[in-house]
TrEMBL record:
Protein's recorded name: PIN domain-containing protein
Source taxon at top rank: Bacteria
Transmembrane segments: none
Lineage: Bacteria, Candidatus Roizmaniibacteriota
Domain PIN: 8-117
Entries under PANTHER family matching the protein: SLL8027 PROTEIN, SSL7007 PROTEIN
Length: 144
């Protein structure tokens, strides 16, 4: 019998939050990835977005981002190409399409995000029936 870990795609907002504070649910989820309880997946596009936004946190550098991804054994898929994004234009906020496509293209069971305005919505959930869009708190409640 082959046991597989739950595949979870991490949005920029969750990774950003985990880098910012070691006390929240985002950080706890990263710890679950490190322990092998769940398999953390993200995309190079998410990492690039995180790198762009990291200037908002004084004490965090690109090295911290790299360590977060490498030391916690995240799988990083390639940049999301335009041809995969194009069919979603008009259905999803353009700046967030890459997150949704990344999660779907890696067959993740969950997309974890803190973006309740554009991603964690009934509309998005109805478009992506094969995966659940959840907050870190929601996913942690399911793991326990």
């Amino acid at each position: 019998m082959i046991m597989t870990r739950t595949l979870v795609f991490f949005d920029t907002s969750v990774l950003f939050s985990a880098l910012y504070s070691s006390k929240g649910g985002s950080y706890v989820l990263i710890e679950h990835v490190k322990k092998g309880i769940i398999q953390g997946i993200t995309s190079q596009t998410v990492i690039d977005e995180l790198s762009t936004n990291i200037i908002k946190i004084d004490r965090v550098s690109q090295t911290n981002i790299n360590n977060l991804i490498i030391n916690n054994h995240f799988i990083v898929c390639n940049d999301i190409p335009y041809e995969d994004i194009h069919p979603w234009i008009g259905k999803v906020e353009e700046k967030d399409i890459h997150v949704l496509v990344g999660a779907l293209s890696t067959n993740c069971e969950y997309l974890v995000t803190l973006d309740k305005k554009h991603l964690h919505t009934p509309k998005i959930q109805s478009l992506c029936k094969e995966m659940r869009v959840v907050t870190p708190k929601e996913l942690l409640a399911m793991i326990k």
